[in-house]
Amino acid sequence: MPRLSATAAAIPPSLLLRLFERAAGYAGEVIPLHIGDTHLGPPPASRFDRLGLDDAPSCWLYKYGPAAGWAPLIERIAAKLAARNRLAIEPAGVQITAGATHALSCAVGAVCDPGDELLLLAPHWPLVRGIAQARAVVPVEVPFTTPLRAGGDPTAILEAAITPRTRALYVSTPNNPDGVVLSAAELAAVVAVAVRHDLWILSDEVYEDYVYDGAHVSIGSLPGAAERTITVFSFSKGYAQAGLRVGYAAGPVGAIAAMRKLVNHTVYNVPHAVQRAALAALDAGDGFLGEARARSQAARDRAVAALAVACATPAGSTYLFLDLRPFAAGDPDGLLERIAAAGVVLAPGRGFGAAFAGWARLCFTAVDEARLATGIARINAILGG
Ligand SMILES: Cc1ncc(COP(=O)(O)O)c(C=O)c1O
Of the CATH numbers 2.40.128.120, 3.40.640.10, 3.40.50.300, 3.30.1240.10, which one belongs to the domain with range 46-284? Predict the structure, then answer.
């Protein structure tokens, strides 16, 4: 075949393939703790069988729709952004996307040119690196939450990473994988650096509904941030609708208009049916959010208590980030393979940044409580022996 693009070749293959191979040899049920998902179903009112989709008088279900998204969903989101995130965003500043993954891809494309540098505050969500690479943007990993919680200064950490090519920074709170919830003061320090160097802030807030200690603060609500922040949200996490692939971005109208062109040239528009399910979740999902958060917090506490490896209790998200280096004898991949061979898959730390080889991420909502306990017992058996 003709040659493939160097851009695509630069994106590394999944680190999980080898672990899946090892897990396939396990005789019993494999427990997937690598995946960032929930075992819960979505809010009942948002299920397709409750939506009466084919009754829609507009018949939009089978037609092309507006590139921005379905107007009733956009208006409902604008109201939510004002009430819950203190983001004063007009409907033209909201873009519906195929999940936060698509939102971030289009946001990077809207604000960065090939060769620009995007700071990834690390440890970071693995896919954001490939999202940058897919647009020939240079991902620059900046260990952030880990040094911060060890007493580091956010301003100094960021200033040291900035070059004349830096165009934007990616920050997530609550953070995946370590569950760190950034304080308003820490976020203000990030904004100050962005203002000083005229950078875009790409704020990933897909775990806004999973804050257990403290409160979620949207960085875009801080003074000076609104005109340089694109915030992305998702229906995957809070509302347990990951399979529907609905997310959204909110920001300055000009930036969202640029993103909209990229949305239009990738998926044209997000399907109407899934936007209807997302609106139903927003309308009826408040009780669901509270229950899911309480259940997730209980799972977090049980997992922290049960694991043989000490780890910080995360203030938010649905993950534990485990430093397995003391157990790895210099071979972190080998350790994760032995855990996979014992029937549990964890997400390898290297995906969250080069500085985190030897760590692993465990999602404590991926499976129900009984399977989580079984998975942890298997991990402990490998770590202990
Ligand atoms: C931090 C973070 N951002 C974005 C995403 C992507 O979410 P979505 O399912 O909406 O594409 C995830 C999914 O795991 C995530 O953890």
Answer: 3.40.640.10
The model's pLDDT over 89-117, given as tens digits with 9 standing for 90+, comes to 999 999 999 999 999 999 999 999 999 99
Long-range contacts of 6-15 (CB under 8 A, 24+ apart): 7/133, 7/134, 7/136, 8/134, 10/133, 11/130, 11/133, 11/134, 12/130, 15/347, 15/348, 15/350, 15/351
Please write the tens of the pLDDT for every residue from 190-247. 999 999 999 999 999 999 999 998 899 999 999 999 999 999 999 999 999 999 999 9
CA 177 to centroid of ligand 1, rounded, Å: 11
**Among candidate residues 214, 282, 212, 218, the one with its CA nearest the CA of residue 244:** 282
CATH tag, 6-42+287-384: 3.90.1150.10
264 pLDDT band, cuts 50/70/90, is very high
Q: How far is the CA of 135 from the centre of ligand 1 (A)?
A: 18
The per-residue b/e assignment along 46-85, b for 16 or more CB within 10 angstroms, e otherwise, is: beeeebeeeeeeeebeeeebebbbbeebbebbbebbeeeb
Provide the β-strand partners of residue 165: none
Q: Is the CB of 318 under 6 A from ligand 1?
A: no
The radius of gyration computed from the CA coordinates of the chain, to the nearest angstrom, equals 21
The sign of the CA dihedral 314, 320, 325, 327 is: positive
| Whether the model pTM is above 0.90 | yes
3-state secondary structure string across 205-221 = CCCCCCECCCCCCCHHH
Q: For atom 7 of ligand 1, which residue has the closest CA?
A: 100
- Ligand 1 geometric centre to CA of 232 (Å): 9
Atom of ligand 1 nearest to the CA of 234: 10
- Per domain, the residue ranges of the chain are 6-42+287-384, 46-284
